[in-house]
Amino acid sequence: MNAQVHRSDAPKRAAGQAPACAVRLIDRRTGTxxxxxxxxxxxxxxxPAAAVAELLEGRDATLWEARVDAIETEGTK
Length: 77
Fold this sequence. Notes:
The chain is α+β, with helices and mostly antiparallel strands. It has a domain at 22-30 and 47-77. Helix content is 18%, strand content 31%. The chain has two helices and six strands; from the N terminus they run αβββββαβ. The chain has helices spanning 10-14, 48-56; strands at 21-27, 32-33, 35-36, 39-40, 42-45, 64-70. The strands form two sheets. Strands 1, 2, 5 and 6 form a four-stranded antiparallel beta sheet that branches. Strands 3-4 form a two-stranded antiparallel ribbon. β3 (35-36) and β4 (39-40) form a beta hairpin. The protein is globular, with a radius of gyration of 14 Å.
């Protein structure tokens, strides 16, 4: 998730990839998003599977779930 992309490579990498998504870590007990310093943690990505894996790594799956919301569709880039 923390891979750096050089500015010149960004447009090439974005072309033909999956739509952008917002991934949130949700506490199953409360139904609310994990907050860091009061702000809900949201990861914006084109690879939601990798973001979900990173968010859930080392966490109890009975207590946490990752929610993926599309913020861009194929027709609205």
